[in-house]
Amino acid sequence: MHCRFCQTPLQHVFIDLVNSPASNSFLTREQLNEPETFYPLKVYTCPNCFLVQIDEYKKSDAIFDNEYVYFSSFSTSWLAHAKRYVADMIERFGLNADSQVVEIASNDGYLLQYFAEKQIPVLGIEPTANTAAVAIEKGIPTITRFFGTQLAHELALTDSKADLLLGNNVLAHVPDIVDFVAGMKILLKPTGVITMEFPHLLNLVEQNQFDTIYHEHFSYLSFYTVSRIFESQGLVLFDVDELPTHGGSLRIYAKHADDPTKPISPNVTALLQKETATGLTTMAYYSHFQQRAERVKIDLLYFLLDQKRAGKSVAAYGAAAKGNTLLNFCGVKNDFIDFVVDANPAKQNKFLPASHIPVVHEDQLKTQKPDYVLILPWNLRDEITQQLAYIREWGGQFVVAIPQLTVW
């Protein structure tokens, strides 16, 4: 196996989460007695460019199929984040009715709808047919294709080049990250701007966020490595924001290398220095992560065993991909967790892969009154605890496992 970016042979294992089904491959009741396909979930660190990456055992076209179950619009905090982004970009870059905004991995139109409200022309690119259909129903023009150089060339010929080209939580999802970035350069107008948001590798390591590793995430990205990848394709990062989303993310701003209209922000040097000071550009930084994940596994299993012995009931909230990684690595099944609540109807009345925990509507919490609610999408902890504050009425408590087991 070689690095997806620099082709250096990969031998340094960052973490091995053993075998797992694809994290969003939810099961119907009829499928519970059928065999499931498991894939190795091993992650490597490149000693040359420090790109942390998974081997592509699970093919992307099999992951992002027509029944993809992640809809961005079901998180109120994420919608608020998108709305703020739109307002900021319009103000900063002077976008108007003569501009073209293109979003890669536009999902159900959760973000482009806010540009459209301002009469700014938009185009979504979304490979999953069911989420794209929802966007189209909202009036968001959407192409149901995977993005890369081939599609970028086709769109460039149709006068669809972007003044603002954006993608949220997609850069880590692409198996060929070099072709993806090359495609963005093709589609970007001479003075256009690219923004990409993705979870910051530094936070993954510092906060023990190993559950954000799953087959759909091919890369785990630092600012240092992303800078090198973009520069290799004639793009320069001229600014960066550190965001609280998804446990700590980066929003990068890129331009053509020959675009003189945008000065390089001091934020660029500051973040590169921060990563270097943390040790992120040394292989020693990536050691001992396996042991830290195993500590979480042991603590969660002891907690669940203790509650089982005491006759207490445990439910979970949020049938998120990160939750499936956590549960499958820990070997937790439906004998320890009764059910998981999720607001997305596409997940309800299905079962989590491998663990076979049923996914239900929130009404079940009020009916069953579990003693504990394990919050799987810990990045939405505040939003969820506020939403479910009523579990205190029967003495219910919240639990998170990342970065360490916490009960309150």
Automatic annotation (TrEMBL):
Residues 244-403 form the C-methyltransferase domain. Keywords: Methyltransferase, Transferase. InterPro entries: Methyltransf_Zn-bd_dom_put, Methyltransf_Zn-bd_dom_put_sf, MeTrfase_14, SAM-dependent_MTases_sf. GO terms for biological process: methylation. Gene3D superfamilies: 6.10.250.3100, Methyltransferase, zinc-binding domain, NAD(P)-binding Rossmann-like Domain, Vaccinia Virus protein VP39. One of its GO terms (molecular function) is methyltransferase activity. Residues 3-64 form the Methyltransferase putative zinc binding domain. It comes from the Bacteria. Coiled coil: none annotated. This is Class I SAM-dependent methyltransferase. It comes from Spirosoma liriopis.
